Amino acid sequence: MKILIVEDEPDMRQSLVQSLEEEKYLIETANDYDSALEKIGVYDYDCILLDISLPGGNGLDLLRELKKQNKAEGVIIVSAKDSLDDKIKGLDLGADDYLPKPFHMAELHARVKAVFRRRKLDGHQTIELGNLSLDLASRTVTVADADLVLNRKEYDILLYLLTNKDRLVQKTSLAEHVWGDYIDEADSFEFIYSQIKNLRKKLRDAQANIEIQSIYGIGYKLHLK
Amino acid sequence: MKLLHYTSLWFLAALFLILLIWAGSFYFIMLDEIYDSIDDGLENQKSLIIQKASEDPSILGRLDFDESNYQIRKIPAALAVNYRDAYRDTLMYMQVEEDFEPVRLLSTAFEYKGEYYELSVITSMVEEDDLIEDLLYSLLVLFLGIIASMVILNNLLLKKIWQPFYQLLERLRNFRLDDPKLFHAPNSQIEEFRLLDNSLQKLLERNVQTFNEQKQFIENASHELQTPLAISLNKLELMVNHPMEEEQLVLAASVMDNLERLIRLNKSLLLLSRITNQQYGAEEEIDVNSVVKKALHDFSDQADHKIIHLILEEKGHIKAKMNPDLAHMLVVNLLKNAIVHNHPGGEVQVLIEDQAFTVSNTGKMEALDEKRIFERFYKQGSNGSSTGLGLAIVKAITDLYGFKVAYSFNGRHEVRVEVRRQV
Q1: Burial code of A53-72, b = ≥16 C-beta within 10 A, e = fewer?
Q2: Residues of B in Cβ contact (< 8 Å) with A153
Q3: A131 lies in the same domain as A109
Q4: Residue contact A102–B229, C-beta within 8 A
Q5: Which residue range(s) make up the domain with A134?
Q6: What is the interface pTM, i.e. ipTM, of the complex?
Q7: What digits encode the pLDDT tens for the residues B279-302?
Q8: Would the pTM of this model clear 0.80, i.e. be above it?
């Protein structure tokens, strides 16, 4: 899986590279409009993380260029502007997704994986870990070939944690992903805990060999037992 | 008190005083003149009578006024020596009027062939009396006339002359910093008004400019903060994914919590300035009922966890022309507020009528400051994760669309939004 990161902030770029490399993706970077344009012309990427405000030009123009070359698929616009206009324009120009800064890394991973899935680059629409298998198309989960019945929230939590397996997912990130952005100001995210508790119980009862670990009030980490 | 009444009152008082003094002096001067002329007449008569007496001594014994206007009486020499001329007002029976009428009487003494006589000459003052009376009445009529015309003139003139001033006042009253196009200074020929208009125009322009700069500043600052906040958050996330001691992890968690709070705060500020800078276009017909239903559904987990009942009562149906994101934000912020400032076992009720909806919740049993509750950073209690911007966002959205929003307390905290554009 080949990803191009177009980002002018060195620190931001470095964090993205570091985090995405953990997933064993092939990462290339561009720090301005011209170098991005050059790379796009030469190589094909499975996913492009595109910042809108770039030295030397606008990310949206880059998107236009990509669309002309029929390569706009798989573009995730990453912008600090969080402007509605840009979002609408970007999606109109064929971008796959729009992620306003600041975002959680877990969310970025989920979006990148969603892009790959939509482009069917994974080949199959299931996520497997240990004896658990999650079918994205039918939204069903099986543990050792036996159905595991989950409600919508439990399924969303499991999917999010699975896409971020072995990574610490913060409560806020989980809450925003599953319950929506608006939830952010809620006084605490304790209510997530009861959902996690139910999910854990169901996994344990089904004898799944994966575990959701709580990490000191920060969040959760899903891993193989 | 209105300017018109105030000036009228002062005019009246001043005029009253001036006219009073003037009328009084005029009256007494005229009176003096009249007496002067009467007395001159009497003096003249006196010399005529004394002259006549030397020609016709028979009149010397005339003791009654009878048909003529004088009487002569012999007096002892001793009395005559010290006699001085005296003018007096007195009353005398007049046959014509069948009543006592005022007369002016001159008493004097003269010597005729070694004998001394006292002469009294009178002249009727009936005419003069009438004159004085007429004078008084005329003065009074004049006085009232002047005052009446003064008041009327003042009314008309003031209304006309001050018209630009009142126009200015009206426009100022309707002036809004966020909608400065409403203000145009009226034209006037009066220099002071022109000056006032110009000064006000300049002052307001400066205000509008400052207001816009401030708005722009908040937006720019929030924007500029986004990237460093993003970098910090992501670096921390990378850090906690490395093996760490528990102690360090707890510290990192605390930093992250606060960083996230900062991010939320910044997002809310950005949202607020976007709303006030009117950067949310694209309005469409919004079904408020379904927005409320969706938001209630989204909050159900959180409410369940806090053991708070969410109740929806639909008595009507609201459709409003709004931006869909802002409609959602309006409802969500109200609900969030109602859930956060609540207690376990409490209730949040949404009542939807045809033109308004009300979000009420149980909570602290005391009313909040209804004037300040919609202010930015006004916090009820010390809720750490609350940004204090939720209701400010509600207010900004309702202001943007001309809706009315009000808080009240009747055992429950109640926020009512009237979804009808107020002109």
Answers
A1: ebeeeebbebbebbbeeebb
A2: 301
A3: no
A4: yes
A5: 126-224
A6: 0.89
A7: 777 788 999 999 999 999 888 888
A8: no
